[in-house]
Amino acid sequence: MIAPIAVSCGEPAGIGPEIAARAWRILGRDCPFFWIGDPRHLPADTPAAEIDDPSQAVALCAEALPVLPLRFAADAVPGRPDPRNASGVIDAIRRGVDLVRSGAAGALCTAPIHKKALIDGAGFAYPGHTEFLAALAGVERVVMMLASDRLKVVPVTIHIPLAQVPRFLTPGLLRETIEITAREMRARFDLDRPRIAVAGLNPHAGEGGAMGREELDWIAPLLAQMRGEGFDVAGPLPADTMFHAAARARYDVAVAMYHDQALIPIKTLDFDRGVNVTLGLPFVRTSPDHGTALDIAGRGVAKPDSMIAALRLARGMAKGA
What we know:
Blueprint: E1 5-8, H1 16-27, E2 33-37, E3 48-50, H2 57-60, E4 65-69, H3 86-102, E5 108-110, H4 115-122, H5 129-137, E6 143-147, E7 152-155, H6 165-168, H7 171-189, E8 195-199, H8 214-228, E9 232-237, H9 245-248, E10 253-256, H10 259-269, E11 275-279, E12 285-288, H11 305-320
Parallel strand pairs: 1-2, 1-5, 2-4, 3-4, 5-12, 7-10, 8-9, 8-10
Antiparallel strand pairs: 6-7, 6-11, 11-12
Helix pairs in contact: 3-4
Family: Belongs to the PdxA family.
Keywords: Cobalt, Cytoplasm, Magnesium, Metal-binding, NAD, NADP, Oxidoreductase, Pyridoxine biosynthesis, Zinc
Subcellular location: Cytoplasm
């Protein structure tokens, strides 16, 4: 039996607590999970049951949302992050990592954080969740994947200006991204030989050098070398023709060269159910593919679809581990 999934609370002034509560109402015992946070921050009408150990969550989840309580410094006011709660948010993530690494939790699903509040309140020194999780796990390199039933896509470079992409995009970085992606697709998604499609950097994948030479000079040679090593990798492919339905049927995961090249297609195809997955960690981590949504927090209109998808995917990946 897979241990229940740990859900870290994220920013308590955002939509994290309410989408966790709504996800529990929909999933119940079908996908057992427990929430790590301050019970005061959950919606007032949430049936919650405090637990001492994650093993208690499976029996309780049919009747109440199991909560592993952490006492935060302040109440939560929807839409207004309080830096006094920053340490609690960070502690919830740490606790989740400890539990999944010990085997007490089957996977970690993280609700969105508010980075400024963490910096202001606790001097948070990481660009985001992913880098913090890598540091906690002692892993130097991880890969971000955006996943849905319609598309799985990995950006090689992420949160950097477009003008800097050609400088950061190196043969070593591309190779490492493909290697981690292939390894995790085998381990977590039960694919013996994952089919990986790689986008070109330039329009029309360079069009034979007319629109840029990166494809000719090193991307195509690197992919050819990796094919010789046994990787099922196609490309470099024109990014404008590799995301329609017929093209997607020819691969299991796409590798894109920069942020928007990866995120625009998946957010267009499945905006509400996209999931952020961190590949390369020694445990399964997923997260809803959206932010804290402070503007709608506490109004009861936040959709739990991405959280539900993240929980279901986490459970599926844990089964494949």
